[in-house]
Design a protein that fits this description.
This protein is of the alpha/beta class. It is built from 19 helices and 27 strands. The protein has a 9-stranded mixed beta sheet, with helices on both faces. Strands 18-17-16-19-21-22 form a 6-stranded antiparallel beta sheet, with no helix packed on it. Helix 10 packs across helix 11 (294-307) and helix 13 (341-354) crosses helix 15 (384-394). The protein starts with 15 loop residues before the first helix and ends in a 23-residue tail after the last helix. Keywords: Fatty acid metabolism, Ligase, Lipid metabolism. Catalyzes the initial reaction in intramitochondrial fatty acid synthesis, by activating malonate and methylmalonate, but not acetate, into their respective CoA thioester. May have some preference toward very-long-chain substrates.
């Protein structure tokens, strides 16, 4: 296949990789011979790498810190490094923590935290939760526990405490406006809300309105070493069918739905990735994603904690800090990185502005090839220009995969063999997939099977080779239900138990390819899934807006950008800046429209529906089937579209 690219680090890239590595070793030997006694201090990447006097001390560190890529042969077992403390095969991750004891689990802005610290801090918090709820038996019986914490140790402690107390964890996101936080807490019927110290003021009026108790995390969680509580322990139970977590996702109805996964579902998500991506206790992952969706929670947090690895957490994404961590010499040294396409685009922009000298570029590539074993992209379609440029500067072909909140990860490119840019690989362990279309005969099975596959093979129905259809998924990672929405849950599955993803897919060249959302009403921007209907519903409350259609316009940086096509009240005016300032009070930042088009009338069919594909063709005729760099956001009133 002409489109196949070798995996960097496993199959050498022609030309530059040997040259970069030779340069790295040559400069290291030269510096060693010079016998300098003073090691230059690493300064800010943003200042020093532009000129570089790149510290040769760092070069020696880069050579000394090679991370071998763990190889897996013949379907060997996952690289688990300690037995689970609980024999229950569906037990959550915290039951394994004491087996890892004093190993470093997390590194954050507050310092280093061991597995033992996480366990005992979580146990103390779970006891506080049970006392607050007057739960003498130590089991909340699946009461929901909402929590709002930063990307640091407090998040893990709140999550584990929710599970230790027998509750269902409901993670909240700091950038959601109060009205949205209120909706999640009310919809989940949470019995208690946990909060990091920095979010108490934000949540107080919300919980007061709802009448839900608010419990702050102790300041000792952030820095003090934990001591074993003198009394109490985790109630032993059968975890398999108990609810574990509710993560909210936008659906085609426009209202966020709570996706309830069991502990068995979560374990299947984690162990499938541990096996496929060869996680081990030697891994160190850099975490820069939000922690209210499956990418940030499962792929980047629960997987490393499952095997005794280390997670280095940044409070939020910062391009300079990420490059410092990837290239840095401090321990623990990063060897795994996962992000959304938008982050990779921003990292490349920083690279272009600051890493301009050839020897700096050689250094960056050499360190990334030698030290980092795995780089993954997901949560949104990866533009080919981003993949190709990232490969040229780091030597890594990004591993693309496919998943959803409802199913975890379902498909993945291989770890150690050739990856095909644009494809999402093959099913993960335990996952079964089908590609189907509606049965036109309206009798018998309601759908026609195009292809069906699992981890080992895919069989294509004769006559349906490379035919597109809807992707269906079945397996132990598939969620239990949409919280408190039995009809939506029923409609999400076929009559024979397969989950309907709503995505169009095709099987060709031995790989699965996602063609796009069957519905155009879910916009994927910067790794977030945004309901166009929900944005429309809120924009229609603006006093100047009479009609609105929200569409996702292809964008190289963001995947898609949120664009509002608007009709105004007669005599009214509205600039993009005014709309953004108003919308920020109601919408999450990533859902605020990045473009505004003013029209006299939005065309609708006889049923009153808008054909959004027609709108895209009308206003962006040159943008079909192609991704272009994001445009700047105009702040002056836009001219009316023709």
């Amino acid at each position: 296949m002409e489109s196949m690219q070798p995996r960097a680090g496993l199959v050498g890239s022609a030309g530059r990789r040997p040259r970069a590595r030779a340069w790295l070793h040559r400069e290291t030997r030269r510096q060693h011979r010079s016998n300098k006694s003073k090691v230059p201090k690493w300064m800010s990447i943003g200042v020093t790498l532009g000129h570089l006097a790149m510290s040769f001390w760092r070069l020696r560190c880069a050579v000394a810190s090679r991370w071998p890529t763990p190889l897996r042969r013949g379907g060997s077992s996952p690289l688990h490094t300690a037995p689970a403390a609980c024999p229950d095969k569906s037990a959550p991750v915290f039951t394994r923590a004491l087996a890892f004891g004093d190993r470093i689990a997390l590194v954050d802005q507050y310092g280093h935290h061991t597995y033992k610290d996480l366990y005992y801090h979580s146990l103390r918090l779970s006891q506080e939760v049970c006392r607050l709820r007057e739960c003498t038996g130590g089991d909340l019986q699946e009461e929901r526990v909402s929590f709002l914490c930063s990307n640091d140790v407090s998040y893990v402690v709140a999550q584990w405490a929710s599970w230790m107390s027998g509750g269902i964890a409901v993670p909240l996101y700091k950038k959601h406006p109060p009205a949205e936080l209120e909706y999640f807490i009310r919809d989940s019927r949470s019995s208690v809300v946990l909060a990091g110290q920095e979010y108490m003021e934000l949540l107080r009026p919300v919980v007061k309105k709802l009448g839900v108790p608010l419990l702050p995390l102790s300041s000792t969680v952030y820095g003090a070493a934990a001591e074993e509580p003198g009394e109490g322990k985790v109630w032993e139970q059968n975890w398999r069918d108990r609810g574990a977590m509710i993560m909210y996702t936008s659906g085609t109805t426009g209202r966020p739905k709570g996706v309830l996964s069991t502990h068995h579902n979560i374990r299947a998500m984690v162990t499938g990735l541990v096996h496929k991506w060869a996680w081990s206790k030697h891994d160190v992952i850099l975490h820069v994603l939000p922690l209210h969706h499956v990418h940030g929670v499962v792929n980047k947090l629960l997987c490393p904690l499952w095997v005794g690895a280390t997670c280095v957490m940044l409070p939020e994404f910062n391009a300079q800090l990420v490059w410092e961590k990837l290239l840095g010499c401090e321990t623990p040294r990063i060897n795994v990185f996962m992000a959304v396409p938008t982050i990779y685009a921003k990292l490349m922009d920083y690279y272009d502005r600051h890493f301009t000298q050839p020897h700096v570029q050689d250094f960056v590539r050499a360190v990334c090839e030698e030290r980092i074993r795995l780089m993954v992209s997901g949560s949104a379609a990866l533009p080919l220009p981003v993949l190709e440029k990232w490969q040229s500067i780091t030597g890594h072909t990004l591993l693309e995969r496919y998943g959803m909140t409802e199913i975890g990860m379902a498909l993945s490119n291989p770890l150690t063999t050739v990856r095909v840019p644009g494809s999402v690989g093959t099913p993960l362990p335990g996952v079964e997939v089908r590609i189907v279309s509606e049965n036109p005969k309206k009798e018998g099975c309601p759908y026609v099977l195009h292809a069906e596959g699992n981890e080992k093979e895919t069989q294509v129905t004769p006559g349906f080779k490379e035919k597109e259809g809807e992707l269906l998924v079945r397996g132990p990672s598939v969620f239990r239900e949409y919280w408190d929405k039995p009809e939506e849950t029923r409609q999400a599955f076929t009559w024979d138990g397969w989950f309907k993803t709503g995505d169009t897919a095709v099987f060709k060249d031995g790989m699965y390819w996602i063609r796009g959302r069957t519905s155009v009403d879910i916009i994927k921007s910067g790794g977030y899934k945004i309901s166009a209907l929900e944005v429309e519903r809120l924009l229609l409350t603006h006093p100047s807006i009479t009609d609105v259609a929200v569409i996702g316009v292809p964008d190289m940086t963001w995947g898609q950008r949120v664009t509002a096509v608007v009709t105004l009240q007669e005599g009214h005016s509205l600039s993009h800046r005014e709309l953004k300032e108003w919308a920020r009070g109601f919408l999450a930042p990533y859902a605020v429209p990045s473009e505004l088009l003013l029209v006299d009338e939005i065309p609708r069919n006889q049923m009153g529906k808008i054909n959004k594909r027609d709108l895209l063709r009308q206003f962006y005729p040159s943008n079909q089937g192609d991704l272009r760099p994001g445009a700047s956001e105009p702040d002056s009133p836009l001219p009316r579209a023709p």
